[in-house]
Specification:
Length: 416
């Protein structure tokens, strides 16, 4: 009985009745078409004419399934009423030809079965109830509307009438359950993801992976900058070890401070990998407020000019800006040398944060990390993820310029 009248069966029955209601406008148009060629007959009084109008209605229903929004509406109804797992159905409008054809096939099947079950429900239910009341109501038995055959008024027929009416209702419930089960089985095939949908899902997963790769960029920028600064300080200290002990002490102090700070940042990023102590947007790390300390121990002379208040920049943008400046200084140290002056300009405007970093090109072979560097690509990725842009390249023949523009107002999903 649960299969026929359980909650799932009732919901599927409702889904079928909705399909029948949706087909009704097309069916009425079909009756008009039939009436144009059969002026002597009424489509509502003739079963053959009704079937003909039904045949005209189905192609019109199929055409409506070709519209892109037909699929999400159908999917929502199937998820709510047919008990089909959500992961087996496609999301979003049908954009491709294959998806639209499948949706049209689904809509045709749904509306056709729905019309049949709806018609049976409307016609058979009151008839079955009437049959069940024949033994108890003489007014029903003697009704001119029913005009019962004489055999059905005999005592044995009246005794069987309640069971016959109940059997009709059970048969109706069985037909509705079978039609609902058929729709539930076909829904994943006709409303499920097409190959193009699966490709789009793979692209979304790739985008999610790119967002997670921000943690890898945090490690690269933090540790890479520290190693570059330590290498420069240690190399300079080695060259003047005998002639300038004071400079050697300053270089060793800078190395100590850089490594201590980097260990703290490394612990922070590894904590995120362990899903511990997340910040408000899932990332922690230094912001532009710590820029003075970075400039003091980066190993190259920096001329810094700020326009606006960097302290008003949102945390996610401020962290990205700090990392961009950090990587830019590392590149300047590797390509320009320790003595090459660097010009850093940061401007906080109404809508964006602009970063410009200039340094001379020394012409010497830069210090290259094993395996090559990924700093410029990381800078570009940081900017793009925030909805901004970054560029780097030669400027005025003998200089190198890094520019980045980051929007100050970014969507919540891009902050995470």
């Amino acid at each position: 009985m649960t299969l026929l009248l359980g909650r799932q069966a009732r919901l599927r029955w409702l889904h079928l009745i909705i399909g029948g209601a949706l087909l009704m406008p097309c069916f009425l148009v079909g009756t008009v078409v039939v009436g144009m060629y059969n002026r002597d007959g009424n489509a509502f009084d003739s079963l053959p004419l009704q079937l003909t109008a039904f045949a005209y209605a189905l192609p019109m229903a199929a055409v409506t399934g070709l519209f892109p929004l037909a699929r999400p509406l159908s999917v929502a109804a199937v998820r709510a009423l047919c008990g089909v797992p959500a992961e087996r159905l496609a999301d979003g409008p049908a954009r491709t030809r294959q998806a639209r054809v499948r949706t049209a096939g689904w809509l045709t099947l749904h509306l056709a079965l729905g019309a049949v079950i709806s018609g049976m429900t409307l016609a058979l239910t009151p008839f079955a109830v009437t049959v069940m009341t024949l033994p108890f109501l003489s007014s029903v038995r003697n009704s001119a509307v029913l005009d019962l055959p004489r055999a059905l008024t005999r005592p044995w027929a009246l005794a069987l009438a309640p069971f016959a009416g109940l059997g009709m209702l059970v048969a109706l419930a069985g037909c509705a359950a079978a039609a609902g089960a058929l729709l539930a089985r076909r829904a994943p095939l006709l409303l499920g993801p097409t190959p193009d949908d699966r490709l789009a899902a793979a692209e979304r997963r790739a985008a999610d992976l790119a967002v997670r790769n921000r943690l890898a960029r945090e490690l690269h920028d933090s540790v890479g900058h520290a190693l570059s600064a330590v290498t420069l300080q240690a190399g300079a200290a080695r060259r003047v070890l005998d002639s300038d002990p004071e400079f050697v002490r300053e270089a060793l102090a800078a190395i100590e401070e850089t490594t201590r700070r980097t260990v703290g940042e490394l612990d922070s990023v590894l904590g995120l990998l362990r899903q511990e102590d997340e910040g408000e947007d899932g990332l922690t790390g230094p912001t532009l407020d710590a820029l003075d300390g970075l400039l003091a121990r980066c190993g190259v002379p920096v001329s810094y000019v700020a326009r606006g208040d960097p302290g008003t920049v949102p945390a996610a943008v401020s962290r990205a800006a700090y990392r961009i400046v950090q990587e830019g200084l590392s590149n300047a140290a590797r390509h320009g040398g320790r003595a090459a002056p660097v010009e850093l300009r940061i401007a906080v405007c109404d809508e964006e944060l602009a970063i410009t970093l200039d340094n001379p090109l020394s012409g010497r072979t830069p210090v290259v990390r094993p395996g090559g560097g990924r700093g410029l690509r990381g800078i570009a990725e940081r900017a793009v993820l925030l909805g901004g842009r970054a560029e780097a390249g030669p400027h005025d023949d003998d200089r190198w310029r890094l520019t980045a523009r980051l929007p100050l107002h970014i969507p919540a999903q891009e902050k995470r």
